Amino acid sequence: MSYFVSTLYIAAFAMFIYGLMGLTGPRTAVRGNYIAAAGMFVAVVAVLIDIRDTDNWALIIAGLLVGVVLGVPPALRTRMTAMPQLVALFNGVGGGTVALIAWAEFLGSDGFTDVDTVPSAPFVVGSLFAAIVGSISFWGSLVAFAKLQELLNKNLEKRVVAAAKAFQLANIVLALAAVGVAIFIGVNADPANAPTSTIWIGALLVAAGVMGLFVVLPIGGADMPVVISLLNAMTGLSAAAMGLALNNQAMIVAGMIVGASGSILTNLMAKAMNRSIPAIVFGAFGGGEAGGAVGATAGGTVKATSASDAAIQMAYANQVIVVPGYGLAVAQAQHAVKEMADLLDERGVEVKYAIHPVAGRMPGHMNVLLAEADVEYDAMKEMDDINGEFGRTDVTVVIGANDVTNPSAREDAGSPIYGMPILNVDQSKSVIVLKRSMSSGYAGIDNPLFTADQTSMLFGDAKKMVSEVTEELKAL
Asked: Domain containing 189: what range?
């Protein structure tokens, strides 16, 4: 039977990898997700076959049912605007599960002492590493979820960001405490010693958990996409470590895939923001969403426009570029934008979509939103591919994107986002910005683009205003 289980594991690993390959392109992403999910199902079946002699089938079945009940409805009902929160929450559950497994292994082996010989280093070290990292990932992900869901009081967040250095000092103490407790447990993990008190594993989990809270709390909203990716990588690493401890091939391979892909994505996103990962984790950047007064931002004057004027500009353009941001997601305006683009296409106007790597609140957020509205994949252009187009673009329509279009990143050495690669929207002949108000983005700074000579502001709900522009286009 062990050969059969091993065969199932190999099949599951192959499906994981093949599914991940599918996620590299929008055309194959859905299929890749299904393949990877089928691989996970095969891995679960393999585990159940491997433990067929257990007496805990009632608990196992109950756990599976609870997981399905708690996991499926949110996945089906969650709006795309809240998808980053769901990803953060699901990722945190993975880290918390790994920490609980490590705790259970400690309790089940009397503090790692209930073995025939000296316990193996992979079992002890892997379990303790998984307990620390899994706990950090779980509690950190909960904070990320709360921030993205805007459950935290804004004034409290600002005070926390202001006290970032105090949190960093506390994190150093907590990290030393967690590692010290882990070393103590490991040193005493010997059959010749009395079982280590359960207080120690509890202390380790508490220290790591509080550290997870304190690490993420001071980090501003602008960095949340990178933080989610980093926490995802940590969950994968903790799962791989626990798999090594339990000699479970499924956990090892799945954890390594998640950890490696999460690490690569985190690094790519950090580069897209021109910042290092330590600077993101310890920088407390982008904590505020300070609002500016209409007509008085960045030292210039804001020029408002109307739906009819915007429609005329776009109707007689050769090329229009749409720059989506989180505001588009909040307004659920993707279908309205697609309808407007179809009308422009009928008039011979070429419409493209400029996607910044960190637009929205998670990697690929804008791509998924637009794909949901049946926007052609070829029309979605990544930053490096589209930046050369702005100089010969007649009209660029910015919908809710702020920091990723801010020319201060390119021109103002004193700006907090200086050096961050941006979409060169300001090089367009005409720019129309759709926003509810003049409030700044997550970086909490003014955007000179809004007061540029070629820029006009179309204030209001993005979906409503795009629909009004569409009606004006139909009337032309």
From this structure: 84-283
| Residue 276 sits in the same domain as residue 367 | no
Closest CA to 288 of 407, 164, 408: 164
Whether residue 136 sits in one domain with residue 196? yes
Q: Is 403 a catalytic residue?
A: yes
List Cβ neighbours of 291 (8 Å cut-off, separation of 6 or more). Answer: 437, 438, 439, 440
Q: Which of 50, 403, 426, 446 is catalytic?
A: 403
pLDDT digits (tens, 9 = 90+) for 112-136: 776 554 457 778 889 999 999 999 9
- The CA angle 177-178-180, to the nearest 5 degrees, is 65
- Residues 258, 357 within the same domain: no
Query: Is the domain of 451 the same as that of 315?
Result: yes
Q: Which of 283, 299, 329 is the last residue of a domain?
A: 283
Specify whether 354 is located in the same domain as 471.
Answer: yes
The residues, ordered by sequence, that sit 6+ positions from 433 with a Cβ below 8 Å of its Cβ are: 398, 449, 450, 455, 456, 457, 458
Kindly report, residue by residue over 172-215, the tens digit of the pLDDT: 999 999 999 999 988 887 766 666 788 899 999 999 999 999 99
- pTM listed for this prediction: 0.80
